[in-house]
Design brief:
The structure is a single chain. With 422 residues, the chain is of the alpha/beta class. It has a single domain, classed as Alkaline Phosphatase, subunit A, CATH 3.40.720.10. The chain has eleven helices and 18 strands. The strands form five sheets. Strands 2, 5, 6, 7, 8, 9, 12, 13 and 16 form a nine-stranded mixed sheet that branches. It has a three-stranded antiparallel sheet with strand order 1-17-18, with no helix packed on it. It is globular, with a radius of gyration of 22 Å.
């Protein structure tokens, strides 16, 4: 009988490191060649990523082409920035575009969901011989953990495509599968998570495993023990109160909206406020090969309130100064509308939105032509996006990590900072 039906052994481990890390924990240890520190002038200390899984259409959201052959039925509306117009189905976001800058010419040569998702989460193309760390893991490694017992990198809503890789295992994302009531696996009841109960369970676990561990000394066994110890510290930590959204004033909860994504966005703010370095919110699917306009209208309505609320809330509290809010997707969708009234995969140009953490607001980088089929000015590669992100955090992209096979790997292989954003 499981004495905590809401907190399985699997969830216990996932909380500590994330399933993708725990599964291959031994092969993912490595040591940096030099100690990192945040460079002077860097402002970002935390990041909240809105991950639009499935490839969000750039034309129907952040780079509208109304009245053109491929523009679709949506209108473009003015925003708080004179330089920016966006879709009519993002009206609340429009009020805060003076805080946001849009890259409209992000591009790659990868229109495959899995490999592009990996690329956009690591800055590296997928390699069967080497796994690369999640962007949040790199930021956590370079800036160090915040003043919290909680994991420094947390993903809400699904599994990320990358873990700690060759960084220390505790740099990997902690995964909370669902957006709906994400704290259920962490805060079952104050009685169950009392210190006495946790200590008794911890001693029981150690008694079960200490003999086997002693006979099978290995780095993977040691890593597993550290995983359990970390989970114990988290569950006993006073910082778990960050997951209790009932502590928020009603006007703030109403601002974010009583939806799964709204509550997750509010939780992301609370986690960052507690010292978590990186929080990813996964939401989709935007893979609209058919009924693109119905699907995108619904999804834009879903994200508009939480995204706008987060920008407003972070700005109001002053947290936006050193918290980057990044909204991106793995690639875009075709300008041409197919026979099913859908848009297909398109990696020649799409959008990313950046706010806070030292990034200037109200700017547009890059320009596409009237039909959205080609880049006319200022292409931005995925490497450039990552160089820009790491620049904001003061991360040296030339720094090298040593992999388990004694192979040095740079933080980022190639990319130039988009200086227009600073």
């Amino acid at each position: 009988m499981n004495p905590c039906p809401q907190c399985s052994r699997r969830e216990f481990v996932r909380l500590a490191l994330g399933a993708s890390v725990a599964a291959g924990i031994g092969s993912k240890f490595g040591l940096p060649l030099v100690l990192g520190q945040q460079s002077k002038g860097a402002k970002a200390k935390a990041c909240i990523l809105f991950w639009m899984q499935g490839a969000q259409s750039q034309i129907d959201t952040w780079d509208p082409k109304p009245g053109t052959e491929f523009g679709g039925p949506f209108k473009a509306i003015p925003t708080a920035s004179k330089a920016i117009q966006i879709s009519e189905h993002l009206p609340k976001s429009a009020r805060h575009m003076d805080k946001v800058s849009i890259i409209r010419t992000l591009n790659s040569k990868d229109p495959n969901h899995d490999t592009a998702t990996y690329f956009l989460h690591t800055g590296y193309r997928e390699n069967p011989d080497l796994q690369h760390p999640h962007v949040g893991s790199v930021i956590l490694e370079e800036l160090g953990p915040g003043k919290t017992d909680l994991p420094g990198c947390i993903v809400l809503g699904g599994d990320p495509p990358a873990g700690a890789a060759y960084l220390a295992a505790d740099r990997g994302p902690a995964i909370i599968d669902r957006l709906e009531n994400p704290s259920a696996d962490l805060v079952a009841s104050t009685e169950y998570f009392s210190k006495g109960t946790l200590d008794r369970r911890w001693q029981l676990l150690k008694s079960f495993e200490e003999d086997w561990n002693r006979k099978h000394q290995d780095s993977r066994v040691d890593a597993r023990e550290k995983t359990y110890e970390r989970a114990r510290r988290i569950l006993a930590s006073a910082d778990l109160k960050a997951f209790d959204l009932t502590k928020e004033p009603e006007p703030i909860k109403k601002l974010y909206g009583e939806t799964p994504l709204g509550r997750a966005a509010l939780l992301a703010r609370r986690l960052v406020q507690s010292g978590v370095r990186f929080v990813e919110l996964q939401y989709g699917s935007w893979d609209t090969h058919s009924d693109n306009f119905g699907g995108h209208q619904r999804l834009m309505t879903d994200i508009d309130t939480p995204y706008a609320a987060l920008l407003e809330d972070l700005s109001r509290t002053g947290l936006l100064q050193d918290t980057m809010v990044l909204l991106m997707t793995e690639f875009g969708r075709t300008p041409r509308i197919n026979v099913g009234q859908g848009r297909d995969h398109w990696s020649r140009n799409w959008c990313a939105c950046l706010a806070g953490g030292g990034v200037a607001g109200g700017r547009v980088v890059g320009r596409t032509n009237d039909l959205g089929t080609d880049i006319e000015d200022r292409p931005v590669s995925v490497g450039d996006l990552y160089a820009t992100l790491y620049h904001a955090f003061g991360v040296d992209i030339d720094k090298k990590y040593m992999t388990p096979g004694a192979r040095p790997v740079r933080v980022l292989d190639a990319g130039d900072v988009v200086r227009e954003l600073f």
